Each structure stands twice: as structure tokens, then as C-alpha cells.
Amino acid sequence: MKKEINGKTKIIGVIGKNIENSLSPLIHNQIILKCSLNFCYLPFKIAETDLGKAIQGIKALNIRGVNITFPYKERVIEFLDELEESTRRIGAVNTIVNNKGILIGYNTDVVGFKKSVQEEGKFIIKGKKAVILGAGGAARAVVYSILEEGIKEVCIFNRTLEKAEKIKQDFSSFFPESSIYVFPLREESIKDKIEEANLLVNTTSLGVPPQIDKTPLLEEKLIHPDLLVYDLIYHPAKTLFLRQAERAGAKIINGLPMLVYQGIESFYLWTGFKPEGEEVLEMIK
Ligand code: ATR
Questions:
Q1: 218 CB burial (10 A radius; 0-12, 13-18, 19+)
Q2: Coil, strand or helix: which one is 217?
Q3: pTM value surpassing 0.90
Q4: Measuring from each residue's beta carbon to the nearest atom of ligand 1, which residues come in under 6 Å?
Q5: Burial of 234 by CB count in 10 Å (0-12 exposed, 13-18 middle, 19+ buried)?
Q6: Within 10 Å of residue 217's Cβ, how many Cβ atoms?
Q7: Whole-number mean pLDDT of the chain?
């Protein structure tokens, strides 16, 4: 199969600060080829001071839509015209659709996380207990996703406690059946909380280059074999955090399945085409 770019080619892409290692261009361009669509997915490396201008540029250049990645998922909201309803509650956007000059924000990370846990992890979220490390834009989607699936208890540990408190404050009233607790990242109580948990997720950027030798969990012995340990990072494929978890006998998942499943949902919003997750995972192996 050969890709033709011509005057009718529609542009989609990803906006982020450090996207040199992003797999999204590979994933989306493979799907485009497979579906024989006249689209092209490009990486846009944007400096923090240029974010507003870049988002305006989506309209000016008639780009069909973009993914938004680290560290702009929350900051981008002020530049959009509309937010899909649950995305407004989540307070983080990973997908923008340009609907005839109106920029609408969506969050496909929620479905992406849910599907990857269910399909790849063979894990049932309902009734379980989770420990979430981090409270940034990605954490907001993960926490919302597991609350929506009926998790019993979520404990959020973050360096900046106020950000974890904000998540609790924003989400609690929508999910009264679930308990949300927040703690500073380096607090002792993490030991007990992990011991009781079934799911442990790293949403922090500890482990992403240049912080490649960092892990959010200082003590490896906190991890037990009955945990599903999930790191949203996919580059490197096995972070120090996942290596710790593996040594402790836990089941591990990296960020690739979530990237694929969220990407499929975003692709559907831009094109109306929705390939199977397993098929896409197979394509990029
Ligand atoms: P994303 O959109 O990927 O979630 P983000 O919103 O910038 O990105 O969030 C990054 C997360 O990594 C935050 O939880 C951040 O903690 P703070 O809220 O305290 O900033 C966490 N993080 C980044 N570097 C960290 C570090 N050196 N130690 C601990 N946590 C860190």
C-alpha cells in the first residue's frame, strides 16, 4: 500500500511539548493506510508560550483535529470553543475536533484507559480498590474512568496535594457510591493503601526521559503479586516502576494499549472510522 498526499488530503496530528518519541504518528498513519483514507497525521512540537497560537492555527490551517499530550491537557481548555459534557467535568482534553471552525474538546483517555484495563489486563474495575500516583491531566482521566466503572475506593497520591484535592472536589458529587481519598506522594500511608489495593497506576512523568531512572515508588517491597500495576508511560516500554512491579510478581501493563485505544476513539471522532483495538495493536508490534 502506498500513501498519496494530494490537494484533498486532510490533516490531523498531535500537539505536545516533547513528542519526539510519540508513537501516535505511526499508529494513526497505519490506520489511515489500512482504511484507505485521504488523511495524514503529523507531530506538532509546540513550546509552552506558543500553545494559544498553535490552537488558533488549527482553524487557520483548516486542520481536522489534533491529539493533545503532555503537558497541555488542562491548559488547552481556555483556547477551545466548546467541551463535550463529560470532558467538561474531567477538566482535561486529549482530543480536539475542528467542526467547521468550531474547536470542540474531548477526552478519549477515559475510554482508552478503561478498555486497556479490561481487554489487556482482563481486570474488572467494579468494586475494586485503586491507588493512583499523580494528579495531573492524565490522572484526571484515569480517576474519572474507574469511577465511571464503579470502583469502590480511589486513593490519589500526589507531590502537590492541592491538585489531588481538586480532583476529589470536582468528582465526588458525581460518584457518591465511591470513596476518594487524597495524600501527599511520599506519605507513609501509601504502604497500607497499596496493600489493600487491586490496581496501582503511575500517571506521573517519573520514568519519562530525562527522568528515566526515577520511579514514583521508592520501596519496591510495597508491591504485591495480586496487584495489576499500570504505567501510563510507553517510552521506555518498561519503566523502572514496571520493573519493580515485575520483580515483585505483579501483573504489569505499560501505556501502549491505552495509547492505542484512546487513539482509535480520537480517530473515529475525526474520520467516522473505527478499527478494532487488537488489529491496531498487531499492526504496530
Ligand atoms: P499529564 O497531562 O501527563 O498528567 P501533568 O498534568 O503535567 O501531565 O501532570 C504530571 C504529573 O506528574 C503530576 O502529578 C506531577 O506532580 P505535581 O502535581 O506535584 O506537579 C507529577 N510529577 C512530575 N514530576 C514529578 C516529580 N519530579 N516528582 C513527583 N511527581 C512529579
A1: exposed
A2: coil
A3: yes
A4: 70-71, 73-74, 134-139, 158-160, 163, 185, 203-206
A5: buried
A6: 22
A7: 96
